[in-house]
Amino acid sequence: MAARGATFFERREGAARAPLASGYLPRRPEKTVLHQVVCEHLATLLSESRQEDGGGLPGFVEREFRRYLTCGSLAQGFVRVRCGRCGEETLVGLSCKRRGFCPSCIGRKMADTAAHLVDRVLPWAPYRQWVVSLPFRLRLRLARSEEFLGAVRRLFMAAVKAWQRRQARALGFKEARTGAVCFTQRFDSLLRTNPHFHAMVPDAVFVEEGEGRVGLVVLPKPRQEDVEWVAARLVRSAQPLLAKLEPEDGPPDALDRLRLAQLDLLPPSPVQEAPPGRLTVRLAGFSLQAATHLHGNDRAGLEALCRYALRPPVPLSRLSQRPDGKLELRLKRPLPGGKTRLTLEPMTLMRRLAGLVPRPRVHQLHYFGVLASHAGLRPSVTPHSSRKASGVCRREPLAQRKLPLVQRPAWSEPRVGELEPLLKAPSPRARTLDWRTLLARTFGDQIHTCRKCGGPLEVVAYVTEPEKAVQLLEELGITPYQPRLARARAPPQQQLFEPSPGFAADPLYPDD
Ligand SMILES: [Zn+2]
Ligand SMILES: [Zn+2]
User: Fold this and answer.
1) Which of the residues 151, 232, 253, 430 has an alpha carbon 20 to 30 A from that of 10?
2) What is the distance between the alpha carbons of residues 226 and 223, in angstroms, rounded to a whole number?
3) Gap from CA of 106 to ligand 2 centroid (Å)
4) What separation in Å is there between the alpha carbon of 268 and the centre of ligand 2?
C-alpha cells in the first residue's frame, strides 16, 4: 500500500495508465444544471456583492463555490477501480468535501453520519422528532450569530428535557436522565436562509440501577398541552436572550444583504410549516412540532429521519433548467397555494446558495444529556460502546439486529431494567463505513457494484495531484474537464444594449 499522504498509488506498476476499454465514458459532474449555473454566474455574484459592499462575500463563501466546481472532476485527481468479476475499469473523480451545498458531498456525509448515529450513538428506544422553527424577524440575526443560535438550541433542548423529567417524576422516577441529538438545518425547502432545529429525542428516559446498569423508562406520548408546555417554556427562557439580539449589531455585510433580499422575496409567512394542532404549536413566532414518532424497532425509519435532517439543500434530481434559462425546483410537498414548483432566476439561486454556506468549523450536529461525548452514562446507553469497536467494516443486515422490544399496550407502567442486554446488541463497525457499504446503504446495490456484471469493485490506482492527473488522463485519451467561469454580467438594464457574454477564458483559479 502507498505511504501516508502519497499523491500517487498503483496496486501494480502501470495500473493507472493501462488503456481503458473502448467505449469507456467517464461520469461528467460538470453536466449537471447546478454546476453549469455556478460556472456561468459565479463571477457575476462576486462582482455584484463587491459593488454593493466594498468587501464582497466572505472568503469561505467564495471558496465553497470554487471548490464545488472541482468536485468529481477527474482533472483534480481520481481513483481507478476495477471490477473483481468482469475486469471492467472505471475512473472516479475526487470529491470537494464541502458542507455548504455540494449535493454529492453532503449526500455522502448525510448517509455516513446517519448510519453512524443509528449504529453507534442512538440508544434502542422509541423516538420522537421535535422540530422548532424560529421567529421570522430573527432568522437573519440568528443566521449570522452562531453564538445566539447555539444558545437558542440549548434552551430548546432544555425545555424538552424539563418536560421529560416532569413526566418521569410523575411515574415515580426522580433521578431520570435524558438524551438527544439535535441537527441544525440552515435552509427551508425554498432554499431560503432559515436556521431551525430537528431533534431526535427518545420517547423515554434513562435510569441508573447500580453496577453500571441502565434501564429505559418509556414515557407516555405527549398530548397537545404537553407540546404547548414545552413551547411556552422555550419562549419564556429565550425571550431575554432574543431581546439582546434585537438592536442593530453593526451594518449588514454582503452576506447579510443576500439573506435580507431573500426574506423580501417571499411573504413573511412560514409557508412550509404545519398548521397548529396535532402536536404543533405556534407561539411568539416560534413553531414547535412533535408529531413525528417512530416505533422502538424502527431503526431504518430513524436512519431515514436523520438523513432527512442532514440532507443537501439542493436536490439535483429535482432541479432543472427551462428553455428560457430559468430554473425550476420541484418541491417535495406542495405550497399552501397548491404550487409544486419553484421558478428561480439562476442569480437568485446563486444568492440563496451563498446565504446557506456555514462558517468554517461550525457543527451541524449536537449531542445532549447522556449522549454528550463526556457523559458518564454514554457507553452504557449507546447501541455499541466505541471502546469495544473493532476495525470491522462489515455490517449485519438490519433484520438481524431487530430489537425484541415488545410494544407495550399501557403507557402507565414504568419498565426498568429489561433493556440492559439489548442496549449492547448491535454489531461493531469502524467509525466510517467503507464507501461501498455506504453507497449500498443509501442507494441500494447498483452503484457500488460493477455496472456491467454487478461484481465487487476494488481500487487499483489513485492520483490526488492535479498536474499528474491531467497528464495521466491525456495518456488515457480522456480530455480533462477544467471549469471555466463566465465573465461577470452587467446588471439587466445595461444588458439590453450589450450582447450577452458567453463563456470567457477566465481560468477558475486566477490566484489560488
Ligand atoms: Zn463487472
Ligand atoms: Zn463535492
Assistant:
1) 430
2) 5
3) 7
4) 32
**E-strand spans in 143-285?**
179-187, 193-202, 204-208, 214-218, 280-283
Bridge partners of 98, per DSSP, are none
Distance 350 CA to ligand 1 centre (A): 40
Q: Cα–Cα distance between 389 and 384 in angstroms, integer?
A: 8
> What is the C-alpha separation between 26 and 139, in angstroms, rounded?
42
DSSP per residue, 183-219: EEEEE-TT--EEEEEEEEEESEEEEE-STT-EEEEEP
Contacts of 251 (CB under 8 A, 6+ apart): none
| Closest among 99, 98, 100, 91 to 73, alpha carbons compared | 91
Domain boundaries, the chain: 8-98+451-507, 103-246+253-315+360-432
Span from the CA of 414 to the centroid of ligand 2 (angstroms): 47
Q: Which three cell numbers stand for residue 268?
A: 413573511
Structure letter (DSSP) for residue 76: G
Q: Write down the pTM of the prediction.
A: 0.78
Residue of 66, 31, 65, 50 lying closest to 350 (CA atoms): 65
- Strands 319-321, 193-202: pairing kind: unpaired
User: What does the buried/exposed string (b/e) look like for 181-216 if buried means 16 or more CB atoms within 10 Å of the residue's CB?
Assistant: bbbbbbbbbbbbbbbbbbbbbbbbbbbbeeeeebbb
DSSP 471-506: HHHHHTT------EEPPPPPPHHHHTTSPPP----E
Chain length of the chain: 512
Q: Where is pLDDT greater, at 309 or 278?
A: 309
352-385: per-residue pLDDT in tens? 899 889 888 889 999 999 999 899 888 778 886 4
